Amino acid sequence: MEHHPAAAWLTEAAASAVQQHGTGNLLRVVLIVMFLGCALTAWLLLRGYKRKDD
Questions:
Q1: What average pLDDT does the structure give for the chain?
Q2: What mean pLDDT is predicted for residues 29-36?
Q3: Using alpha carbons only, how large is the chain's radius of gyration in Å?
């Protein structure tokens, strides 16, 4: 497996957040990002149906 410095930084930041604030804040951030990602994906997929093919 290759070493990815960005992934290492992300896991270190997540571990630090869990140690300092518990799992509640991390879970809240993950849920917000998931919700925004789903909304953006739905918007991108569904905007094509709005076009008129006259």
A1: 77
A2: 93
A3: 18
Between CA 34 and CA 48 the distance in angstroms is 22
N- to C-terminal Cα separation, the chain = 52
Helix (DSSP H) and strand (DSSP E) numbers for the chain? 2, 0
Question: Model confidence at 24, in pLDDT bands (50, 70, 90)?
Answer: confident
CB 9 within 8 A of CB 1: no
Token couple for 32 = 């917000």
Determine the Cα–Cα distance for residues 54 and 39; give it in Å rounded to an integer.
Answer: 29
pTM above 0.90, yes or no: no
